[in-house]
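User: Structure please.
Assistant: Input sequence and predicted structure:
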Amino acid sequence: MGQTLRIIITSMLGLILVFSCATIPKPAPEGPLKGLTITLDPGHGDTEAYDDFRVGPAGDREEWINLKVAKKLQKLLLHQGAQVVMTRTDNRDVNLGGRASVAIKNDSDFFVSIHHNGSVNDTTLDYPLVYIWGDARRNPASVDLAQSILNSVEQNLAFETPIGAGVYSDFLIYSAGTAVLRNTYPRIPGIIGEMGFFTNAAGEQRMRDDEALTLEAEGYLAGILAYTKRGIPKAELLKPVGDDYLRPESSEIIFRLTDGLGGHAFDVNSLLVLVNDDTIPHQWDKKSGVLTVTPPRCSHETIQVQVFGRNELGNALHPREWDLLTMIGKEKRWQGPWHAAFGRADSLRGLLNPGDSNFVVQLDATIYWYEQALRLQPVNPRAAEAEFRLGEMHVLKLDWLGDESARGKAVTYFDRVIGYYPTSNFVKSARDELFMLERVF
C-alpha cells in the first residue's frame, strides 16, 4: 500500500471516529438525573409530501419545531446527568410502534413525546396541554409527570388562551388512545406535550423564536426535575421470575417496592393490587418494602397483575402490567413429542372414576392432553383414536356432569372421525356413539 493511500485511509478513519463520537452525546458524570434514562420523541417527521395540516400561517411545520425543542431538551437533560434516547434526530418519519419500542428496549424510566397543537376550526386557540393514555386513575404516574411539566412550561411561556391548559386523556382524540402512549403504558409512564398551537399566528411566531423554544425546553426540564425530586417509585417482581410460573402449591406473587428516595416509604392506604382487574388482598412489609399477594385459583393461562401506590412525597407507582404464567399456561406451552402427550392422556383416562372427588379435574386434564397430542402433530398414527377419545370424554361430561354443551362437542369429534379418517378402525365405534347420542336426544 502506498504512503499516500495510507494517509488518506487514516484520515478517513479519523473522521469516521470523530463523527461517530459526536453522534453519541454522553450524560454529565454527576447531576440530579444521574442514573435515569429518558426517551425523547420529537413528534412526526418528514410529512411535507402528504400532510398539509401541520403547518402554520407563516410556513413553519410542526415536526421541525418539535425536533428543535427536543434537541434543546436533550442537551439540558444530559447536562443534568440523564441518559437521553432520541427516537429521531433529523427530519425522518419513524413509525409509531418503533417510537414506543425505542423507549422500552432502552429500559427508559419514562417517555416524553414533544408536539405542538393545531386547529382547523378555531385559529384563536393557543394553550399548552399534556396528554396521558387512558384513564387517569389507571395511569397515575403519567398524570404526575404531565402536571409537573405543564406547570413549569406555563411559568416560562405566555399563551394567547391559557384557560385551556390542562392534562387530558388521549381517549378524547382516539377511542383507543394514541399509539405511542398505548404501547409504552404497559411498561413505563409516558406523556405527549402539546405546547401551544402552531395554527395560531402569535403561537407560531413564538415557535419561530429560538429564545422561546429554549424557554419551552427549560420548562420541560424544570418539570422533569420537580417530578424526579419527589422520587420515582418502582415495583420489582421477585417471584415468579424468568421461566417460572404460578404453582398451585406456591402461588404467591412477591414484589419489592422502592420509593425512589432510597427507601420503602409509601402511603399504606394508597397500596392496591389488581389481578385481572379485580382488587386482591395483599401483605405489606414497610421495612423491607416487600408486598405479597396470593391470587385466587383460575383457569386462565396467564394473569395480569398491577400494583398501585404513592410514595410519601406523593409520586405514584406506574402500574406496570405484569403478565404471569399459570400452571395451565405452562402446560399449554409444553412442547414435548405428540406421543408423550397421548400417553399421558391415555394414563389419565384409565384412572377416571365418576365416584372420585377429583373426577372433574381428571376429566378436564384428559381432554387437555388428547388435544395437545393433536396440536403437536395433527396427523399422527393415533390421531383418529385421539379424536374418538375426545368424543368419549365429552359424552362423560354430558352423562355425569349434565353439561349440555358437551353434546355438540362429542358429536363434532365423532363426525370428524367418520369424515376425516375414513379407513380408521374407530369409524364404526364413532357411528355407534352418534346413534346413541341421537337416540338419547
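The first helix runs from residue 3 to 22.
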